[in-house]
């Protein structure tokens, strides 16, 4: 088979369009005029209140932005629901947002004078496992154990971890 190229002939390269369905997220403009066989750049991620954007899907498959475009496409946003995990340690409250099905990072152990931190408990009173995936909003409360009072004196070579200054009246 021989290829004959005629002088002045124009080779037409098809162009394609990628449209985006953000599933109630912020609008994303279509990418038009993509030459067949070329790679295009990913647009800015859409946003949606209460959700984390988790990529674009082509059908049920994550779209691979390194592959050349060879047809018109409609990509659909994949969203993960965000939940709030609140940490209450008595004096302070903090919270983080965690995507559905992900684990929450364990915060640094809180400190409280004259108490030992035991762990974080959920609303049922069970010790929370930080290996558990988050499937709803959570409130985790610090569990404390009261330390015994410190003696006013300590034998030599005894480590004293909590100290206090006591007033001495009359001096």
Give structural notes.
The model has no long low-confidence stretch (mean pLDDT 88). The chain has 171 residues and is mainly beta. 8% of the residues are buried. It starts with 14 loop residues before the first strand and ends in a 25-residue tail after the last strand. The chain is rod-shaped, with a radius of gyration of 30 Å. Strands 1, 2, 3, 4, 5, 6, 7 and 8 form an 8-stranded mixed sheet that branches.
- Gyration radius (Cα, Å) is 30 Å
The low-pLDDT segments are: none
Please give the largest β-sheet. 8 strands, mixed
What general outline do the C-alpha atoms trace?
rod-shaped
Work out the strand percent: 35-45%
Based on secondary structure, the structural category is: mainly beta
Fraction of helical residues: under 10%
Q: What does the average pLDDT come to?
A: 88
What series of H and E elements makes up the topology? EEEEEEEE
- DSSP strand count: 8
Indicate the topology.
Layout (H helix, E strand, L loop, with lengths): L14 E7 L9 E5 L15 E8 L2 E2 L10 E16 L4 E7 L15 E7 L16 E9 L25
Parallel strand pairs: 1-5, 5-8
Antiparallel strand pairs: 1-2, 3-4, 3-5, 5-6, 7-8
Properties at a glance:
single chain; 171 residues; mainly beta; eight-stranded mixed β-sheet; 36% strand
Give a quick summary of the entry.
It is built from no helices and eight strands.
